[in-house]
Design brief:
The chain crosses the membrane at residues 12-33, 40-57, 63-86, 107-126, 132-155, 162-179, 191-209. By secondary structure, the protein is mainly α. The protein is built from ten helices and no strands. The N and C termini lie far apart (56 Å).
Length: 213
C-alpha cells in the first residue's frame, strides 16, 4: 500500500493563516451585518481581521486557533469567504439574496455534510464496523466526493450561483495542494463547518414550518 500524498509543510503553514483569515474575516462580516453599522465600517473591520490573521508567529490568531483546532477545511474557509462577501454587499442586494429560498442542491449538500459529520464522529469513537477516516486518503472517496460536489451544477440555474462552485473548487484545491491534511474528508468538512450546517438545516426547517403554519 502506497503512502498517502500529504501537503508540503510550507503550504500547510501558509494555509493555516490564509484559511483562518478567510474564516474570521468572512465570519466577522456576517456577524457585523446583523448590526446597525455603516457598510464602510463593516468592510474595514473585516479587512483588519483578515490582515491580523495573516501576521506571522504567535501575534496572529491563526497560531492559537491552529493549536486548538488545527487548520480549517478548504470548503469551510471558502464558505466563510462567500458568506462574508455576501454580507458586505449593499443592503438591497443582500436582502434579496437572503430572501431567496434554498435550491434542492443546497439542501442536498447540507444534508450530506451533516450525515458525513455524524459518520466521522461515530468513526472517531470506533462505533463503526470498519474505520472510515483513513479511506479519505484514497482515490475512491475523492471520486465519490467529487461526484456529489459536481452533480448540483447540473441543476438549472446552479452554474450562475457562486455557492454551487464552492465544493468543486475546494476539491480542486485539494487535488492540487492536498490541503489541509492530505485527507479528502478534511478538505470538505471540519467541526465548525459541521456545526454551522446543523444551524443552517434547523433554520430552513423552522422557516418551512413557519410558512406551513
Amino acid at each position: 500500500m502506497s503512502a498517502p500524498a500529504l501537503p508540503d509543510l510550507v503550504v500547510m503553514q501558509l494555509w493555516l493563516h490564509v484559511g483562518w483569515a478567510l474564516v474570521l474575516a468572512g465570519g466577522g462580516a456576517a456577524v457585523l451585518a446583523q448590526l446597525s453599522m455603516p457598510l464602510l465600517f463593516r468592510r474595514v473591520i473585516a479587512l483588519v481581521l483578515g490582515l491580523w490573521v495573516l501576521m506571522p508567529g504567535n501575534l496572529s490568531p491563526a497560531f492559537w486557533l491552529g493549536l486548538a483546532f488545527q487548520a480549517p477545511s478548504v470548503l469551510g474557509a471558502l464558505a466563510c469567504a462567500y458568506v462574508g462577501w455576501a454580507a458586505l454587499r449593499p443592503t438591497v442586494a443582500r436582502a434579496a439574496e437572503t430572501a431567496a429560498r434554498p435550491l434542492r442542491w443546497e439542501a442536498g449538500l447540507v444534508v450530506c455534510g451533516v450525515l458525513l459529520g455524524w459518520a466521522l464522529l461515530l468513526d472517531t469513537f470506533a462505533q463503526l464496523p470498519s474505520a472510515l477516516y483513513p479511506l479519505g486518503f484514497g482515490q475512491a472517496v475523492l471520486l465519490a466526493l467529487s461526484v456529489v460536489a459536481v452533480l448540483p451544477l447540473l441543476q438549472v440555474g446552479a452554474v450562475r450561483r457562486v455557492g454551487a462552485w464552492l465544493a468543486p473548487v475546494a476539491l480542486a484545491l485539494f487535488v492540487l495542494l492536498r490541503l489541509p491534511t492530505g485527507n479528502a474528508f478534511d478538505a470538505v468538512l471540519d467541526p465548525w463547518l459541521w456545526v454551522a450546517l446543523h444551524a443552517v438545516a434547523l433554520r430552513w426547517l423552522y422557516c418551512h414550518w413557519k410558512i406551513k403554519g
